[in-house]
Request: fold
Amino acid sequence: MAEKGYVTEIKGNLAVIKMKRTEACAKCRACIAGMTEKEMIMEAENNCGAEVGDWVELEVSESGFFFAVGIMYGIPLAAFLCGIFLGYFAVFPTLLPNMDKEIGSFLLGVLLTVLAYGWIRSQEKRWEAKKIRPVATRITTPEPDTM
Reply:
């Protein structure tokens, strides 16, 4: 289902769009912003030629959504698990035998998770591809409960 938003600014081929958080977004709680039922502002590809003041429908490709979820959750989870297994079976028994391997492996997992998030943040420019960014697909009518 497409979401509706209000175009507030045009930046080249991108439209800055203000939209209300839907109930699904508010219940997701994947981000702190999802905890409140306020407005959100995002940039989207302007494929419909919208101008400031237009209402547009926004869509995100399913493959782009799963790619973003994989990046934000899959990579850190893999880093955490690798840290735990490497710490428990390789690092602490052989290199630091006097240290508690359960605590050490947990801390190594947390460290690798933090490093994974840092790496993801450093790669944002690379992943700002079209398939992750929402697309304004068509100009539409305003929401009944407009902002």
